[in-house]
């Protein structure tokens, strides 16, 4: 064996023996060698060195990432040099005052034979470095590189719903990646990879702990742990925030009350905040879920949400921190329409919140359903900066077994027109602060990250983390462009496969809606675990935790009348919205049953009766999963075998579960519609009782 | 750059870029290249081929493992051939009738120029293949290899306490590796690596689900999932068993009762068992926790444990399966001594169990404490095969932050003399069936495995999984030999480092006992979570869930009087044991407070007063963790850097927590002893109240 052939043989063995199938751990930061030799050569020519000026750990992180990334992409070691003055053919990081770039923007361009990554701050350079890497990872030309970007939203959060015992509320990718018991001593190398991934998509704030918060995190013991994580996040431009338990002054402070107007309580929070800033000097602030789903809050003392939020803002004092107060609330014993409750509690408080307070509003009025109309608070609180909260973990969207690309869902909300200041007053413009001239703006994604090797359980769910971050940075990016970008970085660059996968991703959310909750159905899923269908759920601890509360199927028809003749939740929207959605004929079919109780026999704008349209959607939705399987089978040659097989097997589950949804809902609603299926559809082969049994199994302890 | 230097450079880059620090995933099956060139050459000479006769998937798995292992160890690809007749210099797998080897034994020896791995069955060959690999991994000569072994215990189980929702009861290494929701479609590659690891140490039976069982597993839906896992286990000689919920006939069978004497119930179990064998033809049988800690059982219907177990044995009928019935029971409202309860319930049933039933008994009478006297049932039920249950997950032994090697604990129990048939009637001989001539024998380890990349959280906890399996196979192996074996396969072969680590491991459990529960203290840990010290715990849902129930500290002294003047639990043992343990002067100090209430001022056999001995042990125990840190620091050059750093950081936590235990217990007991510390010991710098606060933090939601 020649030395040359030995070389490739040993390289092969090394890779093969180590089991280097793509296990998904590297996310979209794969940095696999560029396959096109010509392009690799062109990149190599421009990568003789990386000049990193002395500066903060953030700059060093940018340099390290470039070095690591280029080593992978180019298969060559690129030296880091201090300044690189006079040299050509390298990459130069540069911090220079530039008002156009803002605090976090960057410009990557060719200057004097070098690629210059410029930012007005170290963070800007960091984001520029990742943008350059993305540029190369997606196979674009380096010769006339010209990237200019700055974020449209200032605070770009990930919210983890992770508990101190290691479980993740609504997490479907294993346990929490935060090992509280082992902190602060054990620093899992994974923490840094998490920070890198977030920085690469522009996320700059993280909340490690569940909004159903434990008071543990406010103790000196746990602050040391949080501080250890903050140390890992800092070089990646990420600040740490904390979910707080409202009752903390009682639970750990030894006080008799947590009344926000009580002077002792106020002093306690001020002292606690000062203590936090001593161990985490760049601490970001507090996230609060109060008086919601059993959590304590200021209303326990006859105070309102503004009293609570403003007290925390006062505690932050001169520190550079903010308060994010969640608007996801509904009364303990509701007999009204849950759709309206957050609005009714929060809209009257507009203008009452202190300067450092942002109110965090879910994209829709109920709870992260597969499709919701935009939340009526958007546009209705002009004096308050509103943070848009979207859910990346697929609580209602198929856990880790359904391929559902969420960018279209997020975009649908962002592009919805509130008409608050006339046409074009999109949710995006409310959130980014441009409509109401807010100085601060924010967006939050509930993380889909867990301890699974590939972070998100379903490999394609990585695309939801990715596209959320990119949209948080620039909400004008399209779902399709982001799907394509992610696919090229993560799965393959083979053009046909890229286009097939992009198409599959982009259509996946509509397909999911079709086989689970078409035409505006919502909240008819399995009790508590939110898995599988359960439209027959009639009793629960609260009426608004049942399914019949929402679908209101009866002999006449289906859907929740939220017009003026019903709950009039529709009245919370601007007149233009009311006008369009208030008439079943003009209401988009996707929102129809959100607002109207429609007779089974009514002909819809689609030309079919409600019953026929509904059942057809269930069937075509389930059939579309077969189409997804076929599309995925086609890209097999272009993908890593292990990763391809993983997704393929999940698509098989998805089809099994799509049939479960289809059969459950069609058979259940048929009891009310009392009509046969349209002749083109083959009736389910199993009785409803059998499906109910299946649902019961998954709800056993 | 020459091609040769390019070769090493690229190899280095490949390894470095891929982040191939040792993350612990490969366990003891690392198969890293043999460093000693001479030895590698000697091995290579004997590895020209692997002859694998056609046969079952088990034989194929043996061949694949050898091929994979040799490729790593030797850095060369070894071809697999069908028979290899006439060829020399290879490895030949051979199945040949040989009564001496039994069903699972093997012989590995040199014959006709080949290394022959022989077994009377395919499974014997599989175990022989792993023995050969172990032989090479630990650097032993291949020229005159001669390995002969067969298991002393027939059923060698791992019991997982994993729940269908992915949590692990008392698991400290992430979530469950079993992804029930994704099964049967998604087969995580990890499942096969789990099977390989178990086969390599001789484990031949696994129970995937918690003994606090969900009825889900008995449904057709879940049987498909279990069957999918069984398919992965089968080629590795592993049979699948199942924990069952006693109330299943009611919960999922639609019956009104689960009375084991009810004909309908009996028919239900028989039909269910037949159904299981249809989908898992080699199903192993049932594991039952009944009438214990709130679980349902035959006593709900006035029947006893034998009635329940025998009914299941009957349901197994002609199938090759067994029933394992757990003896870990204590009454719902106890006012007696919990120590005695399992004995009182089970000993009278000796001789009443059907042939296929084994009774599974924990190593000690309470619950997996850091040190317990052997369970009095051992030796007291000669007509019943008893399965020894030990706990590998460190529920009471420091979770994933304390380095505690458990082989000495297991050995201490195995070597304890029950005197059941005169001196030498060790627990080992009771369990392996030799004393009472049982046809079947078993041992079970409660798994310490979770979704953490390194499987066990603390890297050294892998040694507990490893040594348990090896002891289950051959309980005469020593703790030290197994520590050395594991270290060589897993961490390093550098002789000084091997000896340092072996010494550290072997001493670690005694050190843990010293700083937590010296002199026979037990059950004084943090409430519910079993983390940290809480000797002051006075109230709980049950008296025997408090700490004061066990330590009985008062003005006079400390310890639980279990002699004839007390609860007389000691009376459950053989007279010889009673004699030794019944006298404080002859009772081993390690068991002293298990059986005696000893005055603080009493001079012990150690020559010190109880108070001085107790406090000295707490202090020397904590100090020994510093010694452990020093030892670990010394081996740094011989170990992978990331793995070394991980353990080093955990040792820092261990010291912090050792001080926590020391200070808590010394200060708490001092309130009763009312004496100063011996002058050589520096009193804790923090007050007891501060430590109590710390304990409270970890018990917050």
Automatic annotation (TrEMBL), chains A, B:
Top-level lineage group: Bacteria
Alphabetic keyword roster: Carbohydrate metabolism, Glycosidase, Hydrolase, Polysaccharide degradation, Xylan degradation
Start and end residues of each Glycosyl hydrolase family 67 catalytic domain: 136-455
A Pfam family reported for this protein in Swiss-Prot or TrEMBL: Glyco_hydro_67N
Known catalytic reactions: Hydrolysis of (1->2)-alpha-D-(4-O-methyl)glucuronosyl links in the main chain of hardwood xylans
All residue ranges annotated as the Alpha glucuronidase N-terminal domain in the record: 27-132
BP GO annotations: xylan catabolic process
Domain Glycosyl hydrolase family 67 C-terminal, first and last residues per copy: 456-678
Any one Gene Ontology cellular component term annotated for this protein: extracellular region
Classification via SUPFAM superfamilies: (Trans)glycosidases (SSF51445), beta-N-acetylhexosaminidase-like domain (SSF55545)
Active site: 293, 367, 395
Top EC class, one word: hydrolase
Transmembrane segments annotated in the record for this chain: none
GO molecular function, one term: alpha-glucuronidase activity
EC number: 3.2.1.131
Self-association and partners: Homodimer.
PANTHER family in the record: ALPHA-GLUCURONIDASE A (PTHR39207)
Family membership noted in the UniProt record: Belongs to the glycosyl hydrolase 67 family.
Name of the protein in its database record: Xylan alpha-1,2-glucuronidase
Natural source organism: Hymenobacter gelipurpurascens
